[in-house]
Amino acid sequence: MDEKLFINRLKEIINIFSTENFYLAIDKAKELKKELNDDEEKLFVENIIKIIQATLLLNQQNIDESLELLESAYFQLKNFRPNYKGLKVENLLNNINQSISEIKKISKK
């Protein structure tokens, strides 16, 4: 997929995610993944889906599964740092790592 189109589609998904419409964000990300031919792009989007699913699960109080998805996405996305197609993956990784730490604190209470 053209890099600019790929980034625009990801931005659309992120904007939907930001409105907390997690199901729609997941659906849009899955649609994008189906349209991709490049395995690297598919893997990147697959991990964005994991992040969205983890957030949804966390909102549903499913802490363990949420943590599992975030940790999986974190380790997979490390291969894309510091930047992927102009996206600052390092910033995303820092946010995921911070979320993982906060979730672990919550789960120990």
Structure write-up:
The structure is a single chain. The protein has 109 residues and is mainly α. The protein has one domain (3-108): Hyaluronidase domain-like (Orthogonal Bundle). The protein contains five helices and two strands; from the N terminus they run H-H-H-H-E-E-H. Strands 1-2 form a two-stranded antiparallel ribbon. The protein is globular and about 45 Å long. The termini are far apart. The mean pLDDT is 95.
CATH class: Mainly Alpha
Q: What would the CATH topology be?
A: Hyaluronidase domain-like
Average residue pLDDT: 95
What are the low-pLDDT stretches, counting only 5+ consecutive residues below 50?
none
- Gyration radius, in Å: 14 Å
Helix count from the secondary structure assignment: 5
Helix content: over 70%
**What spatial form do the alpha-carbon principal axes imply?**
globular
The assigned CATH architecture is Orthogonal Bundle
The percentage of residues in β strands lies in under 5%
- Largest sheet: number of strands, sense, barrel closure: 2 strands, antiparallel
**Number of E strands:** 2
Present the secondary structure layout.
Blueprint: H1 3-18, H2 22-35, H3 39-59, H4 63-77, E1 83-84, E2 87-88, H5 89-108
Antiparallel strand pairs: 1-2
